[in-house]
């Protein structure tokens, strides 16, 4: 995943841009964004990844996840950690802004990165934790959550959206989201 980011203006009590305050790390798909309308593209053989990601700007927000992000933004810097490929950055930034979500850096998967989500997310969390307090990880992927908890991170399991079996396979076996 790449470490380019959406800039955070100024600094504030949470540590501001590049600050030292705690981080609240939020997944996007299935946590903040409802992917139900585009999961059909993963149920085909072969899976239509281009169509799956092209439909992301039309994702409805998940109210529970949005409320949690807004709540954590009062005390933490928000970092969005997604398995979406880097080529989706502009659409992702526009979607976050349109939903009224807090500004924050976005860590996205390199376009050619196919490692399992549980491996990449834990690697990034450990990297971040070397210099920052990770207050919480909010994610819908059970395997990511299990590994993060075993590694000592505080986790909120985003169980407010139904994920298809095809999406679960995509996250873990195909390293696509």
Automatic annotation (TrEMBL):
<feature type="domain" description="Polynucleotide kinase PNKP phosphatase">
    <location>
        <begin position="25"/>
        <end position="156"/>
    </location>
</feature>
<feature type="region of interest" description="Disordered">
    <location>
        <begin position="1"/>
        <end position="22"/>
    </location>
</feature>
<dbReference type="Pfam" id="PF25109">
    <property type="entry name" value="HAD_PNKP"/>
</dbReference>
<dbReference type="InterPro" id="IPR056782">
    <property type="entry name" value="HAD_PNKP"/>
</dbReference>
<feature type="compositionally biased region" description="Low complexity">
    <location>
        <begin position="1"/>
        <end position="12"/>
    </location>
</feature>
<dbReference type="InterPro" id="IPR023214">
    <property type="entry name" value="HAD_sf"/>
</dbReference>
<protein>
    <recommendedName>
        <fullName>Polynucleotide kinase PNKP phosphatase domain-containing protein</fullName>
    </recommendedName>
</protein>
<dbReference type="InterPro" id="IPR036412">
    <property type="entry name" value="HAD-like_sf"/>
</dbReference>
């Amino acid at each position: 995943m790449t470490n380019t980011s959406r800039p955070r203006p100024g600094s504030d009590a949470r540590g501001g841009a590049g600050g030292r305050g705690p981080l609240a790390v939020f997944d996007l798909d299935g946590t903040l964004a409802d992917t139900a309308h585009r999961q059909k593209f993963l149920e085909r053989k072969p899976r239509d990844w281009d169509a799956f990601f092209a439909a992301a700007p039309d994702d409805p927000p998940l109210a529970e996840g949005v409320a949690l992000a807004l709540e954590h933004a009062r005390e933490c810097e928000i970092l969005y950690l997604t398995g979406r490929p880097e080529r989706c950055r502009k659409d992702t930034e526009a979607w976050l802004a349109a939903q009224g979500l807090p500004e924050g850096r976005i860590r996205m998967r390199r376009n050619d990165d196919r490692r399992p989500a549980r491996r990449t997310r834990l690697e990034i969390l450990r990297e971040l934790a070397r210099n920052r307090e990770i207050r919480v990880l909010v994610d819908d992927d059970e395997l990511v959550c299990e590994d993060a908890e075993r590694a000592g991170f505080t986790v909120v399991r985003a169980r407010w959206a139904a994920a298809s079996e095809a999406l679960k396979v995509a996250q873990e076996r195909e390293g696509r989201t």
